[in-house]
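Write out the 3D structure for:
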Amino acid sequence: MVNILFDCPNIEDFVSELSPYFKKGDKVAVIAFSFYDDYVYDPQSWERLFGPGGNCYVETVEGLRPYGIDEKDICFINYFSDTKERARRVVEEADVVYFTGGLPDRMMDRIRDFELEDTLKKFDGVVIGYSAGAVIQLDEYHLYPDGDYSDFGYYEGLGYVSGFGHEVHYEFKPEQDESIRRFLSERGLTTYVTHTRLGGLVVENGTVKTIGKVDIYNP
């Protein structure tokens, strides 16, 4: 398995670094479960974001296009209209699983609602995600207080990768620095800090490779 943990969806900016992990004809299952409840709440609002022409749809398709992946080979799993059986089949038949950004804890809730957690954990291809879709790949991730979360906290992820922390969207904010210090103190693990839109990580065979602007903090 290869795990790609990026800060933002702009993977088209890193084709030279990421192209070895994709090929023309790859089938991509997009787990579009990280949306905000007050913004996406029914099939119509889901389509506005993840359907053809929607912002998340366009950024996903355009991000993968430089890697030779055709739009017809990208399947978005619809939380409101897909069945659990179809979602499981889409993941099982995929070469790539793609996790969108948003709220990682709500994404985990919806994955469990769909009884998809075991299927995802058994997946052995390329896993890519940005923001929420990056940290959810860890066995445990942390979040700092911001507009979405009132307190620092630890959360359970899917457990594809472990043994380090990942702080996304770094912009030199004091609360981010405090979050990094707290994680280092409490968990004693190396922390990779990706600057907004400037890079990410590739984890292959237990080895972490940084791409772009990534700071590394050791306990």
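The CA atoms of residues 137 and 158 lie 5 Å apart.
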